[in-house]
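Quick illustration, no need to memorize.
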Amino acid sequence: WLGDFVTGDFGVRFSASGQPPVSEVIKERLPRTLALSGMAMTFTLAIGIPWGVWSGSTLKKGLDRLSTGVAFFLVSIPNFALGVVLLYAVGFRLGWMPVRFDAGDPFWQRMHQLVLPALTLALGGAAVYQRLLRTDMITTLQEDFILMARAKGLSRRHILFRHALRPSLFSVVTLFGINAGAVFGGALIVELIFGIPGIGSLFVESIFREDFPVVLALVMILTAGFVVMNFVVDILYSIIDPRVRQ
């Protein structure tokens, strides 16, 4: 079975009429989950890193307490609860985003329908990045080389993003590999909430139908994803700090 798995042959699906190949079912649904996970990770980095840099460099009591409170709230609330809140507030009440995923249109025309699910997955991770990066930025900004950069008259923006950010990213990069797998796993629930026919809904459906070839294939794909992401993290370490290569 493992030899067939490496070549993309996952067997046949037991619970469907005609027993279609598992690979065909996964091939149909995987792009939706990958697009959702990729958009969620992009939102996580785009929100979490600037938020953490700002929080670590702007220690104003009122704003800092507000930022910390929002971060703790987003970390504490589960994805399914946040998804329901966003679905009701932004989708039903305000009508800014579609509330259901329309599988009939071409996929590239449906990317905007993934914004709310991606935000549901991203906000908690962005808050964790903010907490980690804030702590590391506060420590880094007290280092001697930062004081030297300030003494040279370099601009605040230059100091933050050229000198302080890079050595502060190790915790974020470490979490990135773990969070990428968590986002992919979190998509299981989010896809059910927003009606997205992706890997998550397929996984839950296959468990209830005892379609073990599909379940086993999805578990192996998720495991392989974790391994690949940890390999990417090791490469990012060497890019951030060249001393790692030595």
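The first helix runs from residue 2 to 6.
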